[in-house]
Amino acid sequence: ILIGSAVVPLWNLLMWKNANAVGAIAGAWIGQILAIISWLVVCAAQSGEITVDNLGKNEPMLVGNLVAICSSGIIHVILSLIWPQNYDFQTMKAIEMLEDDQRGLDPQDYSEEFLNEASRWVQGWGWGFTIVMVIIWPLLSIPAGVFSRDYFSMWVFISIAWGFLATGIIVILPVYESSDAILHVLFAMAGKKWEPKVPKASQAVELSPQKEHAQAEGSAI
Question: Which pTM was predicted?
Fold first, then answer.
């Protein structure tokens, strides 16, 4: 409820050139205020009083979260359509990196075609996953009506398995990607020097100018 109002404005800022900066701020704050009001009102209307236990019930929480996400998105879209910012994403290419470490990366990873394809992949899977989890998956549970003991057990098992799998991926992948930096620090603490392994692709890129120079000398001879 408190942070849900920032989701849609952030997405718009990243993916939509007309996303208005002031509209994003207004949408996030106004959406949060509306969400808190809705949360409290539904809690009072349903339970008769506002308590910690009553605020934690499904209905007030659902209304608060829906108002946070939907209202902030509507506010931002309306303000962006009225005052489009027309941001030029090409200016991001002029941003200088503080540490231009490209070890293990292929030069084509920075190409326009690769980045556009990655953007389409993220949007496709993002929208698909959202539709499955927010619309299709809840609809599949409607025929069950009131959950039986076995049906609820299956639901809990899937949730737990999903949580462990997601946790493993979230923890393991960043550690793997940062393994060189972690080992560098650990070796430095032990008074030793860590020499990261350079991928063959990077070696080929580094050696290519030498090969060209050698070929040029051979041609000259």
Answer: 0.60
